[in-house]
Amino acid sequence: MKKVLVLHGVNLNMLGTRDQRQYGRANLEEIDGELQELGASLGLSVETFQSNHEGKLVEKIHQGRAADFRAVIINAGAWTHYSYAIRDALELLDIPIVEVHLSNIYAREDFRRHSVLAPVSRGQICGFGKHSYMLALRAVAELLQTAETA
Ligand code: DQA
After folding, report:
1. Among this protein's residues, is 131 annotated catalytic?
2. Residues 6-41 pLDDT 10s
3. Among 19, 22, 28, 148, which is disulfide-ready with 103 (CB 3.0 to 4.6 Å)?
4. Backbone angles phi, psi at 13, to 5 degrees
C-alpha cells in the first residue's frame, strides 16, 4: 500500500479540549483512527505523528525523505503562520504536500490569514473541522492515482 504521512503540529494533541467552536469535539486519537480507516478504504497506509516540538516535526519531515512516503498532509497549528524551519523542511520533499486546518483561518484573527507553508504546498483545505483531514486524504488518493495513470 502507498504510504501517506499525516503531521500534526503544536497544540493539536489538545483537540477535544480546545475551543470546540473552532476545532470541533473530536480528539486527535479519533481523527487519526478515522484517517487510518479512510486510508485503508482508499488503498493508502496512513502514518500519523504529532509533536509540540518544532525540531521533532522537522526531523520527522527529514526522515520522510527516506521512508518512501508518497504524500504528506500537515496541520502545523500556529507554526503555519511563522515557521520558516518547517517550510524549508517541507521544501526538501519532492512529493505532494497538502496543508490542512480544522478552522477557516481566513475568517479569524489577522495573523492566521497568512500561511508560510502555502507556497510549498500543493493545496490547502481549511474550515471543515475534522473533515478537512478526510478531504485532504481523498485529494491525495486522487493525486496519486492520476499520477499513476498519467
Ligand atoms: C489550526 C489554525 C491555527 O491558526 C491554530 O494556531 C491551530 C489550529 C486549525 O487547524 O484550524 O492550532 O491550524
Report:
1. no
2. 999 999 999 999 889 899 999 999 999 999 999 999
3. 22
4. -65, -15
- Give the C-alpha separation, 124 to 101, whole Å: 8
d(CA 139, CA 18): 27
Query: For residues 118 and 27, what is the distance between their CA atoms, to the nearest angstrom?
Result: 25
Examine the residue annotation and report whether 23 is marked as an active-site residue of this protein: yes
Of 23, 18, 25, nearest to 104 by C-alpha is: 23
- pLDDT computed for residue 149 by the predictor: 80
φ, ψ at 6 (rounded to 5°): -110, 120
| Residues at CB less than 6 angstroms from ligand 1 | 11, 75, 77-78, 80, 101-103, 105, 112
Residue indicated by cell numbers 498519467? 150
